[in-house]
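Hi support team,

I've been running sequence recovery on a batch of backbones for a student project. Most finish fine, but this one hangs at about 90% for roughly twenty minutes before it completes. I'm not sure whether the input is malformed or the queue is just slow. I've pasted the structure tokens below so you can try to reproduce it. Let me know if you need the job ID as well.

Thanks,
M.K.
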């Protein structure tokens, strides 16, 4: 009887000891990563600029200028300049031409822009296709697609390209301004020349 009691006590002690050795695992807390906030780019009001460079004399001397009034419409919301500007349209009153030379400005208005079929506006649309930036430009009543280079640095988006006014049927306007500035467009060789080639540049700031 005594042996049975000792055996029962040993079994009870062993069972109690095993229970104490059982480990209770702490519940695993689920963590969720915060989704980064999507920030849309916004065009800085009145930051759109358009510059141009024309050329005179056979030495191709540059004459620079700009337009002080540009209307930009049909922009969208997006995280990149390409998304914001895709399909955006622009219009430029030619009366806003500016070269920092009032006499030259008046000659351009009278002897160049007034000779064009559309004597008030230059218009266009910007698109991004297959990695290219394309301006669909309307000048002198003619619409042409012009490939341009583009870049986005320091919150400034810029495009640069070259147009040939002959492609827009504007040779009469080129000849008109050359006649009006005949002596001024003479080089060392005595030849008066106004080039049909014009470099164009546009930019807009984002915030």
């Amino acid at each position: 009887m005594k042996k049975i009691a000792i055996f029962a006590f040993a079994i009870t002690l062993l069972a109690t000891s095993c229970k104490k050795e059982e480990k209770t695992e702490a519940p695993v807390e689920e963590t969720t990563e915060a989704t980064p906030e999507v920030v849309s780019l916004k065009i800085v009001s009145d930051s759109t600029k358009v510059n141009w460079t024309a050329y005179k004399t056979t030495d191709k001397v540059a004459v620079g200028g700009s337009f002080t009034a540009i209307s930009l419409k049909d922009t969208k919301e997006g995280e990149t300049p390409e998304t914001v500007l895709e399909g955006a349209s622009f219009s430029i009153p030619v009366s806003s031409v500016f070269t920092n030379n009032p006499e030259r400005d008046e000659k351009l208005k009278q002897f160049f822009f007034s000779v064009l079929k559309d004597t008030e506006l230059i218009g266009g649309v910007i698109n991004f296709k297959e990695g290219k930036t394309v301006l669909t430009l309307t000048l002198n009543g003619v619409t042409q697609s012009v490939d341009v280079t583009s870049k986005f640095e320091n919150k400034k988006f810029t495009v640069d390209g070259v147009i040939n006014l002959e492609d827009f049927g504007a040779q009469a306007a080129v000849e008109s301004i050359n006649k009006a500035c005949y002596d001024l467009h003479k080089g060392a060789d005595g030849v008066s020349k106004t080039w049909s080639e014009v470099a164009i540049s546009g930019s807009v700031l984002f915030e």
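--
Follow-up from support: It reproduced on our side and the slowdown came from queue contention, not your input. The two ends are 93 Å apart (CA to CA). No action needed from you.
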